Amino acid sequence: GAVVSQHPSWVICKSGTSVKIECRSLDFQATTMFWYRQFPKQSLMLMATSNEGSKATYEQGVEKDKFLINHASLTLSTLTVTSAHPEDSSFYICSARIKNTEAFFGQGTRLTVV
Amino acid sequence: DAKTTQPPSMDCAEGRAANLPCNHSTISGNEYVYWYRQIHSQGPQYIIHGLKNNETNEMASLIITEDRKSSTLILPHATLRDTAVYYCIVRVAHSGAGSYQLTFGKGTKLSVIP
After folding, report:
1. pLDDT at residue B95 tops 60
2. What Cα–Cα distance (Å) separates residue A105 from each residue in A2, A12, A62, B98, B102?
3. Which of A31, A102, A108 sits opposite B43 (nearest CB)?
4. Which of A93, B17, B27, B101 is the most core-located residue (most Cβ within 10 A)?
5. What is the largest CA-CA distance in chain A?
6. Residues in chain A within 8 Å Cβ distance of B41
7. Which residue of A31, A104, A108 is in closest CB contact with B97?
8. Chain B residues with CB-CB distance to A4 below 8 A
9. In whole angstroms, how far apart are CA A55 and each of A52, A75, A95, B78, B86?
10. Among A1, A34, A51, whose Cβ lies nearest the Cβ of B46?
11. Nearest to A28 by CA among A102, A83, A86, A90
12. What is the pLDDT of residue B94?
């Protein structure tokens, strides 16, 4: 299957700082990318959907000013967690797909805010 | 999208076939059945999908009942590396980019036992 890569795989940051997570489709051009969050022992929760060149669509309850998503090209989307707090500690996962085909997922980024 | 129901957990002996059931009694005629799995601390991995006909690939087989209200994912010879949470997801088939998203339930935690 297609390869989606996230960077970094894990990050520890201080409370109040911002963290950027990158999601790249390595061998295909992704028309749509998704960002999910997963808390321990829970399922994936969709945060937002982004199409290249347009603003992201956020799910209800997800603060767009806190979780900034940029989808500048067909192979790169970034999620920036601004003014991170301990409750933002989670496993963040991106996925990417071409039009209406199956979605492929990155390996995830473990964020710990201390 | 139609809701799915899966057993929370299952065990399977190594080398035996693992049969994972999924109920989707409210599925509509234009909704696909997708299966993903998530190995601990990794992003989900695409397995297979289908609409009406049974499907098989190098990873698994998908059996969809004639009324499409349920399906079974079959791993023909389970190995220890198949231990994961398996998610059954239905989604509407739309045309155009950005037209569908995957909603994850709680899935089935499959434990392959030596």
Report:
1. no
2. 9, 22, 20, 16, 11
3. A108
4. A93
5. 39
6. 91, 108, 110
7. A31
8. 43
9. 8, 16, 17, 43, 32
10. A1
11. A102
12. 53
Q: What is the pLDDT of residues B46-67, one digit of tens each?
A: 999 999 999 999 999 999 999 9
For the segment A42-88, what is each residue's pLDDT rounded down to a tens digit? Answer: 999 999 998 887 889 999 999 999 999 998 888 999 999 999 999 99
CB contact at 8 A, B3 and B104: no
Closest CA to B39 of A105, A25, A2: A105
d(CA A27, CA A34): 17
For position A52, what pLDDT does the model report? 80
For residues A103 and A96, the answer to whether their CB atoms sit within 8 Å is yes
Q: Is A103 in contact with B98 (Cβ distance < 8 A)? A: no
Cα A57–B87–B79 angle (5° rounding)? 140
Tell me if A100 and B101 make a contact (CB, 8 A cut-off): no
- The CA distance from A18 to the nearest CA of chain B, in Å, is 23
